[in-house]
Amino acid sequence: MNPLLECRKIRKAFAGVRVLKDVDLQLASGQVLGLVGENGAGKSTMMNILGGVLPADDGAMLLSGTPYAPRNPAQAAAAGVRIVHQELNLFPNLSVAENLFLDRIPRAPWGIRRTTLSNQSREILRQVNLDRDPWTPVAQLSTGERQLVEIAKALGAGAKLIVFDEPTTSLTQPEAARLFAIIDNLRGRGLGVIYISHQLDDVLRLANDVLVLRDGVRQACGPAQAFTIPLLIQQMIGRELDHVFPERRAAIGEEIVLQLRNVSRRGVVDDVSLEVRSGEILGIAGMMGAGRSELARLAFGLDPLDAGTVQLGGDMLAVPTPARTVKKGVALITEDRRDDGLLLNASVDDNMLLASWRDHACAGWLRRRAAKRAAAAMADSLKIGGALDRPVVQLSGGNQQKAIFARWLLRKPRCLILDEPTRGVDVGAKDEIYRLIRRLTDAGTAILLISSEIEELLGLADRVAVMRAGRMVGEFARAEFDRERVLACALGQEALA
Amino acid sequence: MIAGGPRSVVRFAATELGVVALAIVYVLAILPFCPELATRDQAFAALVNAAPLLVLALGQAFALLIGGIDLSVSGVISLAGVVGAMLLTSDGGVLADSSLAIPVALLAMLLMGGVVGVAQGAAVAYWELPAFIVTMCGMMAMGGAAVWLTGGARLGSLPLPLLETVQGDWLRVPVILWVATALAIVCYLLLQHTVLGKHLYALGHNARAARVAGISLGRVTCFAYGASGTCSALAAILYTCRTESATPSFAREILLDAIGAAVIGGTSLSGGRVSVMGIVFGALFITLVGNSLTLLNLDYWHVLMAKGGVILVAALLDAARRGVAGGRA
């Protein structure tokens, strides 16, 4: 059997952090390969390398026996490799037919050959069982139908290999069933399919072979019949502890600092309640898209609530806004440091003082020297080296993150919401951030910690709540912490783990 | 600095000192052709001409600092001027004979500018409309209103005490200069020494981050446009007193001079950077170019061409500086 795609020893590192380590992958024509792994295991990077979005640092790829090294998505598409992304790449204001033939519209001297375009579009849409007028604007289609158009587009362009990235996350049950039928059909016609999903039962049902990635390493690979869901979960986690998490020195307080009651926002968060006491860390686990960051934004007042209430230290906030929650002593560090955190071209100390200028002023008039002194002392205690008047953009990722921590520490927050606080920072800075978090809880700060690293949650949190599809689906006390059970719960497989 | 080659030259040229150097070089270069420029009268004339422009440019700087723009300048000037004149004119003015007429009228003008500005800021912040559109509509609506109120006629016959005060000297320096200087100092202190100033900068650097840090974007935006509107109204007072009448259709070019002065002074059009000193020299420089070319008997359109070139060079320097200073495009 001649493989359709063969990847040998693919390597990739970002800023010195290796995310793919010598990954091998084979796929034969007419086969479906399931690709599974935790968040950050390297699935997306692998897919981006296949799709020509990122170049591999090392390793080789063969497509139908010929070397394959796309430098951009267009080259990948020309070679017959198509990726159906989670967020679909269609133009909603154009018709189905125009989307299908965007780069090769049949032309005539007077313009577009509409009849030819219609007929060819219908022909392709038939292959994915989509019975729609080709001139319907894509905006009028459901998500499921748009996905079919995306697949049809790949087929129309002569794809040999289609990669699906979490294709069922926004599909209804019947839509998903239809998608599986089409994937079966593609397999029958001799195409290769790579199917990436957190829905392990779907993967086991669809795939011929399953490949498990863990921390960028090919952890296991074999025929789907050889796996069960618990077995897959076991392979996905079970990484070694590589951090020592600092022990708490002060007991959890009595006072409930942050309390959410039946909080909802349509489409992202559904009826979530939680409370965090002073000095306590409540961890939130969940897969990508489970609504964790959205929950943090709701609690902080960044997005409007559709229902529910937010209470801070017993005070009800009718309409939470960041200005109000900050005044009540809440702080938020989002996962997006660049856009939600830093004033990139402003100085380090201006960045650190951003939230506390008011505290360093008398009737609006700044006491600049006192403010600078406070910033310098904070920089010192967090070991942010170098001059504080240089632009923050010149700092390393870890130091930028520490500068944002410093911004909130200067306010002595009562409640700190952390969304992926160690994303994109190096190992040393990670440990420092863990110690910092512990220092805060020892001083009585309530912390809501969102992280995709289960290890980080279990190492720091006092309780872990699990979210799935916008809902709170489970909670674990420290005594019951168990990586496999938490992950199984996040994946919706708790009965099996 | 000199050893640093062309990069340092670019960096220097785009700072406040660079604008000063540019102005000096320009004066020295043009002096042989119109020596009158160096006389005391001409020098004062240049400063007095520059003063209202400076007031406008300082106002504009608030909008630019938060990454916006205020195009409503000429509309506010027309409408505030007309409102003030309608209150004051001895030719049937509402308050013509009252002893409080002058302070009330001036206050009304400033208040009108401020309120209009805050309203525009609210539209930008809460309706999330582009500042360009909001203030353009403001310009059209207020310009139209001014003509509608007056039927297009100039309003003159303003009270003499007011004209004499504003056109006169205080301690041998024109009052207009005192006003502009005082405003520049207030703006400097506000931007550098108050919480509000820091919040304005933060909004210009990164509005999303400022919001997450608990800064109320709505209030800060309203303040910025309110400040701009108030400055336009103050400029309206100065222009009205200098020309001794209110014009319902004030020249729109003044907006471009104000933006030009701010940009020459190192204000970034993408927000987050402003320098009061730079704007002072920017306004002076633009005025100098206009005055000297007029003294050389060049026509109005030649002056416009020259100004266009000068502002373009300033914008180029700004772009070059961002490239050099940020290390990234």
Structural commentary:
The complex is a heterodimer of chains A (497) and B (329). Chain A has 2 domains: 3-237, Rossmann fold (3-Layer(aba) Sandwich); 256-329 and 413-491, Rossmann fold (3-Layer(aba) Sandwich). Chain A is built from 17 helices and 24 strands. In chain A, a hairpin with a 2-residue loop joins β11 and β12 (217-223). In chain A, α14 (397-409) packs parallel to α15. Chain A is globular and about 75 Å long. By secondary structure, chain B is mostly helical. Chain B has a single domain, classed as ABC transporter involved in vitamin B12 uptake, BtuC (Orthogonal Bundle), CATH 1.10.3470. A two-stranded antiparallel sheet of chain B has the order 1-2. In chain B, β1 (169-170) and β2 (173-174) form a beta hairpin. At the A-B interface, α10, α11 and β20 of A face α9 and α10 of B.
CATH fold-level name of chain B? ABC transporter involved in vitamin B12 uptake, BtuC
State the domain count of chain B: 1
Tally of domains of chain A: 2
Query: Using DSSP, what is the number of strands of chain B?
Result: 2
Quick recap of the structure?
The complex is a heterodimer of chains A (497) and B (329). Chain A has 497 residues and is an alpha/beta fold. Chain B has 329 residues and is mostly helical.
